[in-house]
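User: Can you help me understand a structure? I only have the sequence.
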Amino acid sequence: MTEERPKDPDIEVMLRFQKGDEKAFEILVTKHQRNVLNLIYRYLGNATQADDAAQEVFLKLYRARHKYTPKAKFSTWLYRITVNHCLNEIRSRKNQPASLDPIDDMTEQGEARAPDDQIHQGELRRAVKDAIDSLPENQRMAVILARYEEMSYEEISETMKTSLEAVKSLLHRAKESLQQKLSGYDKQ
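Assistant: Let's start by predicting it. Here is the structure, written out as tokens:
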């Protein structure tokens, strides 16, 4: 009896694109563009660079279509391309800060807050952003994928091409580092 993977409709669309269906590529771009853009923006911290990088990621996807084999979820493969691109960008630029605010959610949603609460929330967000920005790049990427992309440890492992134990270790060390850096905010 063969092990059956859950159906991923994106795999079917990618396989259609692989066979020459250009409309399938448009479907994939439309569906995943916002998530790819947000991930890049969180990592690079610059909207213009994120937009350019997202276009480059989809160009890489276009060029790599014939190499694609459905071994995991399509989104995992796409995130792997995105992560590699981000890491290459970071290495080429060195020390460019990242932003954690998603592009489509630049303002806080919800009920109105008192000015003091708004100032405190802004300070806390800035402190969290600065603390995450200061992490080593592999820890930072693991945190972004876990917290902001809501990936499982297994998905992070596949995306970052590392073992499950390495992901757990990265996230554990990042958590310890963040707790230390944010210790002044823990009671607030």
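Now, to help you interpret it: The domain at 115-188 is CATH 1.10.10.10 (Arc Repressor Mutant, subunit A). Helices lie at 9-18, 22-44, 47-63, 74-93, 115-133, 137-148, 153-160, 164-181. Let me know which part you'd like to focus on.
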